[in-house]
Amino acid sequence: MYVVQSCCKSIPTVAHRGIGFCRTTSVRLISATSTKFSSPGREKKLFTPGPLSVSLTVREAALRDLGSRDVEFISTVKFLRSKLLQIAGVSENFYTAVPVQGSGTFAVEAVFHTAVAKSYGRALVLENGAYGKRMGKICEVLKIPYHIESFPENSKVNVRQVEELLMDDPSFSMVAVVHCETSSGVINPVVELGQSIKRLIPNSVYFVDAMSSFGAVPLDLERGHIDFMVSSVNKCLQGIPGFAYAIAQTEQLLQCKGNSRSLALDLCDQYDGLEKTGQFRFTPPTHCMLAFCQAIKEFEQEGGVHGRAKRYKENRRILQEGMKKLGFEEFLGPEHDGYIITSYKYPKDKNFNFKTFYSKLNEKGLVIYPGKVLNADCFRIGTIGNLFPEDFHELLAAIEEVCKEMNIMLPIT
Ligand SMILES: *Cc1c(COP(=O)(O)O)cnc(C)c1O
């Protein structure tokens, strides 16, 4: 019925999806081991920034227990860490990948814990949306001295303005910024920023949250002088949620020993454990790691960063054209060409109500997301995850139908 694969062996060529097959099979799987606790719910398509849709084959790869002392597990950890560096396009001689249990925010917080010096550290957070603001919140909670520099949510972080700020006040030991600000879809110029930051404050640590872009939007860590970059398994690499990871400049990381105010989120300690024993310090997400091995195989079969970008761009193109035809207006101007997620303004039609709109789409098995920008009423549609052009055609047809049911005039004016 389903095949359980050992993760480090060569891959059979599997279709990335086969949705019809996928729905019936997953129902069968669940009913075969039917429990009192969960009913075999309907499979949904997630047009969201996370959790994201993942393939059946990725989910199947998790259907196996594996002990954490098992040699297979230890080699799996090693395999994944080195694959992540390969995907990031950096050398094992200079960079290291450190996985952290939990969602993406755990890795963001771990970097602040680890990379901001306890005694003299001061962070500069550049924000133009909710995820940047969250970094400020983390500094607040960790009692890290910081300055948050805000930029409009519909524009990129301005390099010139950052340069002026740093010339005025170079007393920062870390600068942090989000690559793709998932609340709006803006892609920040993180490489250019890194070059300016290292020119003006060469001894600082540069931290990029590339959570929703890693694996689909090319990013040159070396050229951008990025010391720490974080992402999670359940974004563009399409694994099942369970852990996140930092890709760190090894020398920088080694200098961070003793900084962390947290034991569980100490990247240095986690790194030491992984290097010395090949083990996580605390219970590892074994099933999730097995699934991630399969996710990486599918990522490579699709052609890596390039292949994934191609599909996501096509998803976004279909969405953009279709929504435009229906009269929906994007939150961002045409100068933004990110293809991870798109924010749409609520139609002005008095019959529009987001809750109803959302629920009606949800009933059709299509999940969109509320907006997250402060200065406009928006909803968001993600183009990442295990979604294909036909899914966007389906979504667009459903949106049209729902608008008609809600008596919203089309095209929206
Ligand atoms: C998804 C995401 C995160 C992590 O959010 P979690 O809810 O902790 O997974 C952080 N930053 C960005 C830019 C994201 O898109």
From TrEMBL:
Could you tell me which Pfam families the record lists for this protein?
A: Aminotran_5
**Keywords of this entry:** Aminotransferase, Pyridoxal phosphate, Pyruvate, Transferase
Q: Which residues form the Aminotransferase class V domain?
A: 73-342
The answer, when asked if Transferase is one of the entry's keywords, is yes
Name the InterPro entries for this protein: Aminotrans_V_dom, NH2EtPonate_pyrv_transaminase, PyrdxlP-dep_Trfase, PyrdxlP-dep_Trfase_major, PyrdxlP-dep_Trfase_small, SP_NH2Trfase/AEP_transaminase
Q: Which GO terms describe its molecular function?
A: 2-aminoethylphosphonate-pyruvate transaminase activity; alanine-glyoxylate transaminase activity
User: Reaction(s) catalyzed by this protein?
Assistant: glyoxylate + L-alanine = glycine + pyruvate; (2-aminoethyl)phosphonate + pyruvate = phosphonoacetaldehyde + L-alanine
Supply the PANTHER family for this chain: 2-AMINOETHYLPHOSPHONATE--PYRUVATE TRANSAMINASE
Database matches in HAMAP family: PhnW_aminotrans_5 (MF_01376)
Q: What is the official name of this protein in its record?
A: Alanine--glyoxylate aminotransferase
